[in-house]
Design goal:
Largest sheet: 7 strands, antiparallel
Number of domains: 1
CATH topology: Pnp Oxidase, Chain A
Distance between the termini: 52 Å
Order of helices and strands: HEHHEEEEHEEEEEEH
Helix content: 10-25%
């Protein structure tokens, strides 16, 4: 294997995929966006009415990193012909973790606080119906021209963990971030066209399509 062969293989396949070329699209349940706390934060931050409008592109731009999930085949050991062999019987999908930048209106934090309340009501201490708090999440790998080359659609996703936020007098110039873990029913690998269509559907609130 020579360096020329490696360069030729990379070149004919469009170059190497870059970790910073990605997009994330989803629309949280409507109840998680319509809160007095969110409206007040938008007004006091100076963003005005514009910042109250949910733009799916904002979520993608504020997403600093995300993982494309892996999948593990679960197996049972079976003794056959004096030798143990593995028999597959199912699979386990990895949870997906994301990191979002926080703006001064705490948009992402407020949104996920509201989404968690849609999952489990902290006052009545009751879980809600799953169909009312899940949303498809689309993760896309982009090429150098920002065109999707691969996508993953997380079916019926919802946040299960929203990490705490550290306030620190010793970090004057540090930027606040929030980490979120999603669980979901299944993930579906998609090609460029199907992923683009899924991103379009996931960016539109349910009930409008």
């Amino acid at each position: 294997m020579s360096i020329d062969n490696l360069k030729s293989t990379i070149g004919k396949r469009g170059g190497l995929a870059k970790t910073n070329r990605f997009q994330v699209f989803f629309t949280p349940p409507q109840g998680s966006l319509l809160s007095a706390k969110g409206l007040l934060g938008a007004l006091t931050s100076g963003g005005g009415l514009k910042s109250m409008i949910n733009d799916p592109r904002d979520i993608s731009l504020l997403c600093e990193n995300v993982t494309i999930p892996g999948r593990q085949i679960t197996t049972l050991d079976y003794i056959a012909d004096k030798q143990s062999v593995k028999i597959p019987y199912g699979f386990i999908n990895e949870d997906v973790t994301c990191s979002f930048l926080l703006t001064n209106d705490y948009y992402m934090k407020t949104m996920f606080d509201g989404w968690l309340e849609q999952v489990f009501d902290s006052e009545s201490y009751r879980a809600k119906f799953k169909k009312d708090f899940t949303s498809d999440v689309v993760i896309q790998q982009l090429n150098e021209k920002n065109i999707p080359v691969y996508g993953i659609r997380l079916e019926n996703a919802f946040p299960t963990t929203v990490t705490g936020i550290t306030l620190d007098n010793n970090s004057e110039s540090a930027v606040q971030k929030i980490n979120v873990t999603f669980s979901y029913d299944n993930y579906v690998p998609e090609g460029p066209l199907s992923s683009t269509m899924s991103a379009f559907r996931s960016a539109i609130p349910s009930g409008l399509i």
